[in-house]
Amino acid sequence: MERRIYLTTPIYYINARPHIGHAYTTIVCDVIRRFYKLLGYETYFLTGTDEHGDKIMRAAKAAGREPQAYADEISAIFRNLWPTLHISPDDFIRTTEERHKKVVRAILQNLYDKGEIYHAHYGGFYCTGCERFYTDKELVNGKCPDHLTEPEWIEEENYFFRMSAHQDWLVNYINAHPDFIRPERYRKEVLSFLNEPLKDLCISRPRSRLPWGITLPFDDNYVTYVWFDALVNYISAPAYPDGEIFKKFWQVANHFIAKDILKPHAIYWPCMLHGAGIPPYQRLNVHGWWNLEKHKISKSLGNVIEPLSLAEKYGADSFRYFLLREMAFGLDADFSEENIRHRFNSDLANDFGNLVNRITTMIKKYCDSMIPVEETLTDADCTLLNQYNKVKDILPEYLENLRLNDYIERIMTVCRATNKYINDQAPWDQAARKNIERLNTILNISARVTCGCAKLLLPVMPEKCAEALANFGITEQDATALDSGFAAGRHVQAGKALFPRVIQEPSIPVKEEHKETVMENKPTPPTPESPLIEYEDFAKMQLKTAHIIAAECVPNADKLLRMEIDMGTEKRQIVAGIATDYKPEDVIGKTIIVVANLKPRKIRGIESSGMLLAAHGEKGLSLVIVDRPVEPGKPVT
Ligand code: MSP
pLDDT category, 253, cuts 50, 70, 90? Predict the structure, then answer.
C-alpha cells in the first residue's frame, strides 16, 4: 500500500478575511498530515487562495483597489495567518500566479481539442455569491439557498463543458469506490443528485461583463468561469503533468472541504478530470459547518469569528485542540467561547497539563530530576500500560476513518487514568516509607505513559506537546517515531505550568474583591481588643487533614500556588498565597490542615475550595503539617 498522502484545503476566496471556518479545514489538514507523518508516511499539504471572478472584483471595487493589488493584500493575510496557527503547508497556490494560469489554459485547450467544449446561447438565474447559474428547481422561494438572495437573470453566449457526457462514468465510479466521497451521507447526497440528468457546465464569462479572470486560450473575448479555474489548483500546484510532486502524489490526493462546496468537488471536478484524461483524485472528505446559534458562520451572514483573536487569547494549540475535539468530522458543530474555556480548563490544564506537571515535579523531588528505572510491574502498572498501548495501536484505524474527535478523547481518557493511577499508587507514601523500588516504578510508568500521550497529541498541539516532551528530556529529533525517545536516566525539568488556567471571564478585568486577599495569608493579628470566642464558635470550623497531590504556580500571580488536595472521600482544588515560601515540588506529598467548610471563593478567577493553615514566623510562612502519617480527611480538633 502507498505510504503517501496528498492533502488539500479549498483555496479560499479573498473577498473576506479568514474566519474560523477557513481555520478549521486548514487545521484539520495540518493535524491529519502530522498524524500520517508520525506513522511514517510521506506527505504533501496544499492550501491557497481563489482570486478571480465577480465576487473578488466587486470586493476590490468596494475597497477602492485594483483587483491585483487587493488580491495581493488579502492573500497575504491568509498566507501569514497559517504559521501563527502552527499550520505548515508545503505549498500555497494563488490562482493569479502564472504557474496556475498555464495549467488552466492547457486543460481548457485539451478539452476544446477533444470536442468536450462547445459554444452556445444561454439564459439562467445567476447568483454572484455562488458564482454560478441556478436551475428553477434549485432555488428556494426564488432565492439562492445558500445566500438567501434573489439571483439575476442573465442571457448570453458562452462556452460549455459537456459534463453530461460523463454522468454514467461518474455514477459507476462512485458506486465502485465506496470511499471516493465520504462520510457516507455526502456520497448518498451526490448519488441522489446524479439520479437526475446532469446539465452541461457553463465554463466562460464574457470579458465585457467580467474582465477579471483567465482568458480562454481559444477565444479571448471570454474569461474562464471561476470554479473551473479554481478546481484546477489541485493539479497546477504540484505542476501537472510532469512535476515530480504531481507524479508522486496525485494518485493519493485527499481533498478536504465543507459541505457548501460539495457539488463542484464531487461532480464538476471528477468530470473535468475524466474529460481531460486525468485519473480522479483518491478521496473527497467532507465536513460540516461551524454554526453560531444554528447559523453557518460566514462572511455573508456577518457572524464571523476571527481565529487569530481566539488563538491569541487561548493559545494556537489550545484553539486547534478545541476545534478538533469539538467537531465530529462530517457533522455540524456549534461554536461557543464558553466551550473553549471549558476544554482548556478541564482537558488541557486539569488533565494533561497537570499530569505533566505533577510527574516532573515528583521526579525532581524524589529522583534527583532523573527518570527512574522501573522494577517489578504490578497489575495496576500493566493495566495502565496496556490502556496506552491500545490507544497507540488504534491510531491508523481512527485516522483512516477521520474519527479525530473520538481519538483525542481516547488519549485524554488515558491521561485521566494516569492521574488516577498516581492518586491510587500514592508515590509520596512510597517515598515516606522509603520504598524506593516501588516509587521508581510508579514514576517510570506514569512518565512513560504521559510521554506517549504527549506524542500522540503532538499533531494536534505541536508546540505545547513538544514543550511537554522537552520537560522529560525528549527532543523533537528523539520523538520522530511513536516508540522512540522515552528513556530512564533522562533529565526532567519541572515547575512551569503547560496550560496556565484561563480565568473564567477573561475579558472582564479582575475585580478588586476577587484579588487574593484572604488567601494571601495576611491575617489580622489578634489584638487585646479581639473578643474571646465561645467553643461553639470554634466548633463551627471543620479542620481536616489533606494530602497535597499536585501543585503548580499561578501565572502572573507571584505569591499563589494552585494545589490539588486529597481529602479522603473527595479531591479539591485550593489556591494559597504561599509561593514566596514554597515551590510546587516542596509541597507535593505533604499532609496539611485545611479549613474544609469555608465557602469556596475565586482567587484570580480560580476557584479555591478550602484554606490551608500556616504559621507566620519572622522568616516567613510555615505550613501547619502533622508530625506522623495520618490519612487524608481526618478531623482536627
Ligand atoms: N473558493 C472556493 C473554493 C474553491 S476550491 C477549488 C470557496 N471559498 S470559501 O472562502 O468560501 O471557502 C469555503 C470553505 O471554507 C468551506 O468549504 C470550508 O472548508 C471553509 N468554511 C467556510 N465557512 C465554514 C464554516 N462555517 N464551517 C466550516 N467550514 C467552513 O468556497
Answer: very high
